[in-house]
Amino acid sequence: MNLKYSPRSLFGVAATAALALTVPAALVAPSVASAQSQQSDLTSAITALRAISTMRADFVQADPRGNRVKGVLTLKRPGRIRFQYEKGVPMLIVSDGAALTFIDYQVRQVQRWPIKNSPLGALLDPKRDVMQYGKLVASSNSNVVSVEVRDRKHPEYGVITMVFIRKAGAPGGLELSSWATLDAQNTRTIVTLTNQQYGMAVPDSTFRFNDPRGAGKR
User: Does 212 reside within a domain?
Assistant: First the structure.
């Protein structure tokens, strides 16, 4: 499998199909009532996101060239996540709550970034004010709630668009189904989630990794 992902582009998630359902919010002239409804949906999406204590899901990650790779995502609040790629893909992404770490076992390379400097900060950083930097992206499907988060004062942080599907039984009644990230180099990464499970016990050791550089380098 010939993968050409850059580490920063890997820190990303909205399904192509879900994005196709959205239209630019600037093209919509909402009434006061619809504006209130949008604010309610934004609040609900943020509440649902914060209501996830632990989650495990299968994911498919795609880049602009059509490369696709699968794996299992494990999330634990606050701030911890693990992207365990399928067999044969020598990469791993973990967050210990403070920084995202990209490990390439093929070339024995480890790179780290503060969570706040990544588009995934909206998903992981408990200090990120999603309400301040987020806006609802209009959708023709009433069961879809899409939220775009960007800090215009820090474009280097990138943009993330999170897509939620209304689903009874999901935290807050909204299930995070996908997200798309756009990094500072305008590289888009799309991640789609399936088989989401919530509330399982996840040990902190899940977010550790074997350092390919050898002992004492971690």
Answer: no
* Closest among 167, 169, 149, 168 to 159, alpha carbons compared: 149
CA–CA distance, 87 with 38 (Å, rounded to integer): 42
| Cβ atoms of 150 and 139 closer than 8 Å | no
| 211: amino acid identity, one letter | D
Q: How far is CA 212 from the centre of its chain?
A: 26
Q: Are 165 and 177 in contact (CB under 8 A)?
A: yes
pLDDT digits (tens, 9 = 90+) for 132-171: 878 899 888 989 999 998 888 878 788 899 999 999 989 9
Any domain includes 96: yes
Domain region containing 74 = 9-199
Q: Which helix (H) or strand (E) holds 7?
A: helix 7-10
Three-state DSSP at 130 gives helix
* Sequence-separated (6 or more) residues with CB below 8 Å from residue 22: 137, 138, 139, 144, 146
Provide the token pair at 185: 């180099």
Number of domains composing the chain: 1
Write out pLDDT tens, residues 111-132.
998 887 777 777 777 666 777 8
66 falls within a domain: yes
